[in-house]
Amino acid sequence: MNPLSLVPIPDMIQAPAWVFLGLDILLFAFHILLINVALGSMLLIVFSRGRRREEPSENPVRALAASKIPTFFALGINFGVAPLLFLQVIYGHLFYSSSILMAVYWILIIPFLILAYYGAYLHAGKFGSQSFLGKAALWMAAVILLCIGFVFVNNMTLMLQPEKWVAYFENPRGTILNLSEPTLVPRYLHFVTASVAVGGLFMAFLWKRKMKINLMEAEEKGNPGLKIFGFATAVQILIGLWFLMAIPRDFLLEFLGGDVFSTIVFLVGFAGAIGAVAAAFANRLGATGVMFGLTIGAMVITRHNLRAMYLKETFNLNNLQISPQYGIMALFFVVLIIGAVSVWYMIRLSRSTENGRTS
Amino acid sequence: MNYPVWEVFSLGGGTLIAGISVLHAFIAHLAVGGGLFIWLTDRKGFRENNPLVHEYVRRHTWFFLLLTMVFGGVSGVGIWFIIGLVNPAGTSVLIHYFVFAWAIEWVFFLGEIVALLVYHYKFTVLRRKERLTLAFLYFLFAWLSLVTVNGILAFMLTPGKWLKTHAFWDGFLNATFLPSMFFRTCMAFMIAGLFGYLTTVFLKDSAFRTSMMRYCTKWLLYPLPGLILSAVWYYYETPFPARRTAFAVNPETAFFSELFVALTVGLFVFSLLMALRLNAGFQRVLSLVLVVAGLCWFGGFEYCREIARKPFVINGFMYSNMVKKSAIEKLDREGFLKHARWAATREMTAKNTLIAGRELFVLQCLSCHTVGGVHNDVVPLVRNYTALGVRSLLNGQGKVQTYMPPFAGTEAETKALAAYITKSFSRAHTAGPTRRNDVQPGKQVIPPFNRGEDEYVLLAWNDLGMHCVSDSDSWFVILPPGNTLEAVLIRRGETPELVMEGVEISYDVEEGYGNPAAHVDFWKYAASNFGRKIKENTGLQGNGLSGKFQFNTEHASFLAEGIPVVPYKDDGSYNPYPLFTVEAKDAKTGNVLAGTKVVAPVSTEMGCRNCHGGGWRVNHLTGIAAGTSTNILQVHDHLEGTNLLEQARKGNPKLCQSCHADAALGVQGTAGLLNFSAAMHGWHANYVPYDDVRACILCHPANRKGNTKCARGFHKSVEMTCVNCHGTMQEHALALLKAEKGKRGSSRLMAHLKAVHVDAVKEINPRLPWVQEPDCLTCHKDFGKPPRHGNGFNTWNGNFSGLYRMRTDNAGVRCQACHGATHALYPARNPYGKNRDNIQPIQYAGIPYPIGSNLTCAVCHVVKMDGAVHHENMEHVFRNAESVR
Asked: Structural domain of residue A243, as residue ranges?
């Protein structure tokens, strides 16, 4: 059976594909950052308890992080909805197919995510009270997020490989995973390690705020969060190399000069990562943040470039037919701006109350 | 077909969508109404300068956040997940055509979250104006989010102009957008009040608690008028076909719509209870009950809304099984599997029929049905049908029961799916074998007639040449035992005379048929079916198996009505053509003037079991079995909301015509319902997958493989079938339905029927059953030779006396007296004895042709006659002697 015969016919899109692609990549970057913060914070708190170095409640940074995890859940889920929407616009025909092949795992994400989310609130509420329930809730939430991440990686890889979809004819019950895929483990570990790194970076920012000291002084005192970020990012680079080795050789060559744009973006990301490690170990929070931002931006685009390579024989975004809806698109951008202004206003309100005003 | 199908046979994708969606939408409406609740309650606290209210709002907000942001938010994503899994094609349409609306909704969702988080976390430190602004912003974003989603949901039911233009605003600003928006807004406020109870009921200060509970009660009551008005508006903006399908046709809707109405009243009443100062413990329990009731109330509404749209996921555009309406014609022509990307079977062969059938089932049925599952289980719906029955269900799918989509595929694919369904889900109650009746007819004994000496000619006939009895009396009755014999006595002479008085004509059934009560349960259940007890072995008009004729002026004949003969002989054999001896005696002297024999055709070979399963009741030969009867009643109960099966099981079966009028039984039925013939033919014509004579012989006892073969008259010998006179089954049904215009179901049953012998359905002339029939003279113009391929469809006699079987010739002799009964016209060929139906022509004229044929006028006239007095074109030799040899 020709695997391409299984690929469904996509519907028409309402604006050029690059509009949706751009929104998808940008909002995905926000989403993954927020989830990395949530998961990373959870993992770091769990590790710190495990190592019995100090009780997390004694560490004001971890306490602050614990209280913020539910908020990052909320925002992370919200910023997951938008890329999910735009992904369905341009890649829906592939995404639905692979989702259906693993339907049982896919739909189980929802109840487990709810559990993890409530677990985060329970943990935040019980933090500092030495409650077993609170600690167990955090463990549960962390494990669940790790599992959800694994299912996502399976789906995102399977959707790019229609040649594997014939497995459906042996198993139509929705329990197919992409375990035979050589990039599955490095890609998954890349995500987990990123969470640890970003968790560390987040804690680094909190440390700076909580300690109420300026950047210069922080550089002298040694930010523990930065150390975590540094180590994790170093490991991340190694995992990234593993990932690179695991992709098909043709694609590797594209990243090493074959395709100019892919190569440049990849190298920027690679260099950014090294720069971030260096800045982190040099205890320079600001520089680390900038390097990290560069890395994340480049890596999210690289992720798409790799996706396009996998889909080269299957599907080209430019082949999607356009039935323009520019009027409503313009309305969306207007609403987006109004929404952004509203959000900025509300956050400003929130910030302005930090100096202990009462109602 | 574009996508793979997640095979969850027992759980059902539709059930999952329903479960996740109802829970999410209930909480999401709380998020909207609750937003206004928080804002106004916080404002109330400031206005009253009441710190208790503020503290209440703070705690309520925490509960509200945990419920709406966590469960509400993630379950919303859950809907995206599940609809993408169960109906990706429909989801793709919604995503693509409304992407920017969804994107806008996402911005509102973001605004909502940020507003609520800031409001909650900074509650104690925000100033009044800031806090109220935040609360209002939360509500505004939540409500705008509702408006956006509502537009797209409403589009699914009423796409309107979008079907032609595919333009965004045509789809979004659709007919039910506004009424649904008002309706949902009112619901949102009421739900806020319900959840308000949950938090106020735990307040410690009892006076404050009561005042807050009264406050929550206002939230339930004030929106109620708006809810009712917008509900009415919503109902009438829903297009008529959707309303009819949902509320009149679909048997499932009633429960949910009644639930919704009952709970609206219930919530209203109980909310008043919550406003009273009652025991706190009791009110806590009641508040939980009310929330659950609210969920059921909300679910009832959402369920009705979803049902109204069936069989479509996008009304008028795409069916719930993801087949596009515009593609049906092509798929029927070219094949479904050929065009399904995720089907392994590309070519259907004899070997892969069941595999192909399974794939068709998965791709077209699993989207709505489960197999042995919690909801919409397909097994009980098909369990008792044969493969032909299932094929018929597929053929008629969506035509009458408009909440189903049509089956998309070729005839071979229909058969494959029927084979798979029957093999997998149907019990062993198949059609069952039909034995060949091994009755040996023997030589036909013809009564004597002395052409030279006998003074009288006695002619007798059964008023209908084809007559059935339904021997399913303990379940239902369609036709009771009751043959009507007619006779005329002619005094022979150059000018013969019809004798109308001074004679006594009697009838007597042949031996072995005298005790029909031993073979059928008609008398046992007569009181239930006919409303009165009837003496055993006596018919509805009081006649027994032997008795006397009474002269009837209207008929111009002697009549013996309702003779309750059945085709079951006492020795256990079956013969649907029992013979009656008819004798005419002088009333004064008692001398026998003439005698003859006549067949009273009576068959119990009603072929319901061909589709409804159950086998034959009697000896694998004939009769409606219990399994067949229960399936028929079960289906009728399911589709029409009757409880005939239960009543029959309790010993109270009903005559079908007690509701459906029937001129044959002289019964009026229930006003507004289709007459029996229109209902039966109208209904089944939509389902039976044949449009030639095979459709007729599925039910009527003329099946070539059966044991009655009652279409035995001369027309059969020249290879005519039912269709030549009555039209196809669909045309037959159309003519009957046209006469029943305005009655319930008539237009729905007609909608998909097609005419073949006329150019358009509107040219079909309406006819009343039993009263208006096709007529001989349509083809036999001036009683002459008919055209080679004549068709009698669409020309009916005017009234009862104009029927062939009621008419007389120019001399006042009944047509049937000389030509034989309908469907047994001389020369007939009886399967139980070649000349069993031709006794009188052979007795009197020595030839089996119509009496007087081949110039045998002497039968009555004693001498040869000149001139076509009885009717034109009668003076010739029987044209088709070759056909009957």
From this structure: 182-318
Residue A111 contacts residue B23 (beta carbons within 8 Å):
no
Residue A353 lies in a domain: no
pTM here is 0.92
Question: Does residue A357 lie in a domain region?
Answer: no
Query: What are A63's two structure tokens?
Result: 């306490």
Percent pLDDT > 70 in chain B is 99
Q: Domain boundary at A163, A181, A199, which?
A: A181
How many independent structural domains does chain A possess?
A: 2
| A314 in reach of chain B (CB within 8 A) | no
- Across the interface, do B100 and A14 touch by the CB < 8 Å criterion? yes
A330 located within any domain: no
Q: Mark yes or no for CB contact B73/A78 under 8 Å.
A: yes
CA A244, CA A229: separation in Å to the nearest integer?
A: 22
Handedness of CA A110, A111, A112, A113 (dihedral sign): positive
CATH of the domain at A236: 1.20.120
To test the contact with chain A by mutation, choose from B2, B65, B94, B149 the residue with the greatest count of A C-beta atoms within 10 A, namely: B2
* A7, A96, A145: best to mutate for the B interface, most B CBs within 10 A: A96
pLDDT tens digits along B230-241? 999 999 999 998
Q: Are residues A243 and A110 in the same domain?
A: no
Q: Residues A230-274: pLDDT tens digits? A: 999 999 999 999 999 999 999 999 999 999 999 999 999 999 999
CA angle A288, A293, A297 (to 5 degrees): 150
Query: Are both A158 and A189 inside the same structural domain?
Result: no
The A residues from 121 to 160 touching B (CB cutoff 8 Å) are: 121
Residues of A in contact with B106 (CB under 8 A): 78, 81-82, 85
Distance CA B428, CA A129 (A): 66
A71 and B CB contact within 8 Å: yes
- State whether A25 and A165 are in the same domain: yes
One domain, residues A280 and A269: yes
Detail the DSSP E strand segments found in B555-705: 557-563, 579-586, 592-599, 616-618, 622-624, 654-655
- Of the residues A164, A181, A198, the one at which a domain ends: A181
Query: Is the CB of A357 inside 8 Å of chain B's CB atoms?
Result: yes
Whether residue A186 sits in one domain with residue A176 = no
What is the model's pLDDT at position B462?
97
Number of Cβ within 10 Å of residue A251's Cβ equals 20
Tokens for B849? 């042709």
pLDDT score recorded for residue B430: 64
Q: Find chain A residues with C-beta within 8 A of B5's C-beta.
A: 100, 172
Closest residue on chain B to A347 (Cα): B118
- CA A201, A207, A212, A217 dihedral sign is negative
Whole-number average pLDDT of chain B: 94
Provide the 3-class DSSP secondary structure of residue B498. Answer: strand
CA–CA gap between residue A79 and residue B864 (Å, rounded): 106
Residue A194 within a domain:
yes
Q: Which residue numbers in chain B have pLDDT < 50?
A: none
User: What is the enclosing helix (H) or strand (E) of B509?
Assistant: strand B503-509
Query: CB B130 to CB A339 under 8 A?
Result: no
Condensed to tens digits (0 to 9), the pLDDT of residues A329-358 reads 999 999 999 999 999 999 998 888 665 554
- Closest CB to A107 among B73, B85, B95: B85
pLDDT at B264: 87
Q: Which of B70, B103, B111 sits opposite A118 (nearest CB)?
A: B70
A356 touching B (Cβ < 8 Å) = yes
Average confidence (pLDDT) over A60-88: 92
A94-107 pLDDT, tens digit per residue, is 999 999 999 999 99
Q: Which of B323, B327, B297, B298 is nearest to B311 (CA)?
A: B323
| Pick among B27, B105, B107, B317 to test the A interface (most A CBs inside 10 A) | B107
ipTM: 0.95
Q: How many CB pairs under 8 A join A and B?
A: 206
**A-chain residues within 8 Å CB-CB of B70?**
114, 117-118, 121
pLDDT (tens digit per residue) in B38-79: 999 999 999 999 999 999 999 999 999 999 999 999 999 999
